[in-house]
Design goal:
Blueprint: H1 14-24, H2 39-64, H3 69-80, H4 87-114, H5 122-128
Helix pairs in contact: 1-4, 2-4
Length: about 140
Amino acid sequence: MVRHQPLQYYEPQLCLSCLTGIYGCRWKRYQRSHDDTTPWERLWFLLLTFTFGLTLTWLYFWWEVHNDYDEFNWYLYNRMGYWSDWPVPILVTTAAAFAYIAGLLVLALCHIAVGQQMNLHWLHKASSGLPLSPL
């Protein structure tokens, strides 16, 4: 009876699988690549960094105008005719967007640190490529 040995043995790399899976939805080992990152993906990394900066600025702005929330509400009340507390949903939405983009940026920097090819998933591209615009 002949015993066949496996030709290769791959060590499970759970951390690397999670890193590439969350960032680019590449969960399988054969989907990961140590090839150079394409110029298109580098452009997306720059856009992600720019969006991070814009979102950080927008979050800082809404955090610092805390004393002017009432004036902002009065301004909107005079324009729309009904009272609503607008700064709170704006601040919460901005904080959630900042956390999401910061997480993606940390994952991208981890890809660079371990030498993996960056391949941002299209869903992340669609959601992070549109920076929050002022009202």
